[in-house]
Amino acid sequence: MSALAQELPRAAVEARLVALISSAAVGLGVLLSGFVLREPAPYELYMAGLIGVWALFGLRISRAVAPLLVLLVTFNIGGMISMSQMSNLMNTPLYLAVSLFLAFTAVFFACVTEMRPQLYGVIFQAWVIAAVCTSMLGILGYFHLFPGAEMFTRYERAAGAFQDPNVFGPFLALPGIWLLYRVLTGSPLKMLLYAFPLLTIVGGIFLSFSRGAWGLFGASAILLTAVLFLQSTSGMFRLRIVVMSIAAFLFLALAFLIALQIPAVADLFTVRAQLVQEYDGARLGRFARYGIGFALALEKPFGIGPLVFGQIYGEDTHNIWLKTLMDYGWLGFVSYLTLILWTLAAGFRILFRTRPWQPYLLCAYVVLIGHIALGSVIDTDHWRHFYLLLGLIWGAIGLEYRHQHGLRARSASRFPDF
After folding, report:
1. How far apart are CA 158 and CA 180, in angstroms?
2. 162 CB burial (10 A radius; 0-12, 13-18, 19+)
3. How much helix, strand and coil, in percent to the nearest 5, is found in the chain?
4. How far, in Å, CA of 360 to CA of 357, rounded?
5. For 18-73, how does the pLDDT look when each residue is reduced to its tens digit (9 = 90+)?
6. Are 73 and 103 in contact (CB under 8 A)?
7. Of 12, 22, 99, 239, whose CA is between 20 and 30 Å from 39?
8. Residues whose CB is less than 8 angstroms from the CB of residue 222 and which lie 6 or more positions away in sequence, other chains included
C-alpha cells in the first residue's frame, strides 16, 4: 500500500514534467518562426526534429484532422505532377519538399492542440514574444539606431528578422489581434500591460510599408470587434467594446500622426499608400499577368512547374490562386480551394460556441480570412505562419469533434437502449 502511495505522486510528477517539456518545445518552435533571415531557417530544422520526436511518442491524427492531411498531401501531389512538365528541374524538388514540410507543420499543430488545448496559450504567448522581438528589430533597423541595423530592413522598409517586409508585416497580424482582443475584453487594470506590445507590433506593421499587412490588420481588427459586439448579449459589455474600440483607434491614430512628422516616413507612406503601383498596372504588370496566367491555366491542366511562371514573365504570380494553377495544376488548385472552403465553413460553424479555446479560434479565424483575401494579390504559398494558422483552426475543429463525441457517449450511457 505504501509503495502504491509513493508511486502515484512520482507518476504525477513525471507526467507534469513531460507536459512542461512538451509545452516548452512547442513554444520554442513558434518563437523561432519569427526569425527567418536565411533559409533553411532555424525554424525548419527545429520543427523537423520536433515533429519526428513527437511522432515517435504519441502523435495521433484524429478523424477530424485527417481531411487537413489528405487535402494538403493531394495539393503537393499536384505540384509533383506539375514538376513532370518541366524540362529543367532546377531547385524544384527542394521547393516542393519545403511545401510538403510546411503542410506537415499545419497537421502537427492541429494534432497537438487537439490533444492538449492548453497549448493554445503557449503558442499565442510565444507568437507575441516573437512578434514583439522582431518588430523591435524592424523599428530599430528602420531608424538605424545601432551599427549594422540596416540588416533588419529591406528596400528602406522595416523587415525585422525576415527576408521580406511583405511577410514580416502579415506575421505580426495574429499577435496584434490577440493583444487587441485582450485590450477589448480584459481587465482595464491590465490595459497598459497589453498596450506597449500592441503599439510595438502595430509600429512594425506600419513601418513594413506593406499595403497588404495594413489591410490585413485593419480588416481583422474590424472583424474581431464586430464578432465580439454581436456575440455578447450584455449591453454593458457592448458599450465597453464601443468605448475601447474608439479609445484604441484614437491612440493608434495619434501614434500614426506622430510617425508622419518624420519626413522619411511621410514620403515613403505617400508612395506606398497609392492603391495601384507602377508595377501593378504596367503592360506586363501584376494585374496583366493575372489574365495571362489564368488563360494559360486553361491550356495546361497539369500546370507548368513550380516557379516557372516567374522565369517566363519576369515576375512571379503574386496571387495564390494563380500560383496553385501554375505550380500545382488543376489538382492542386481544387485541393487548395477545397481546403480553404472547408476550413472557413467548419471554423465558422463552431466560432460562436462557448469553449475554453474559443478566443484563440476567433483571433486565428479572423486573421485567416484576412490572409485568404491577401492571397489574391500576393503569394502566401511558403508563409510559415499561414500553415500555423491552419493548424490552430483545425485543432479547434478536432476539439469540438471530441467534445460532441463525448456528449453523445455520456447521453448514450444515461439512456441506454432496452
Report:
1. 22
2. buried
3. 75, 0, 25
4. 6
5. 889 999 999 999 999 999 888 778 999 999 999 999 988 888 999 999 999 999 99
6. yes
7. 22
8. none
Give the Cα separation of 138 and 198 in Å (integer). 15
Q: Which three cell numbers stand for residue 60?
A: 495521433
Strand runs labelled E in 139-246: 153-154, 157-158
> Which of 47-56, 134-143, 154-163, 403-412 is predicted least confidently?
403-412
State phi, psi for 184 to the nearest 5 degrees.
-75, -30
Query: What is the spatial distance between Cα 354 and Cα 213, in angstroms, rounded to a whole number?
Result: 30
Q: C-alpha cell of 165?
A: 517586409
E-state strands within 174-234: none
pLDDT at 244 over 60: yes
Q: What crossing angle do the helices spanning 2-32 and 42-56 adopt, rounded to 10°?
A: 150
Q: What is the pLDDT of residues 376-386, one digit of tens each?
A: 888 898 999 99
Q: How far is CA 169 from CA 22, 38, 157, 350, 361, in A?
A: 29, 17, 10, 28, 21
Q: How far apart are CA 303 and CA 92, in angstroms?
A: 13
| Predicted structure pTM score | 0.91
Please give the Cα distance from 369 to 159 (Å, whole number). 23
pLDDT, position 281: 47
7-37 burial code (b ≥16 CB/10 A, e <16): eeeeeeeeeeeeeeebbebbbbbbbbbbbbe
pLDDT for 415: 57
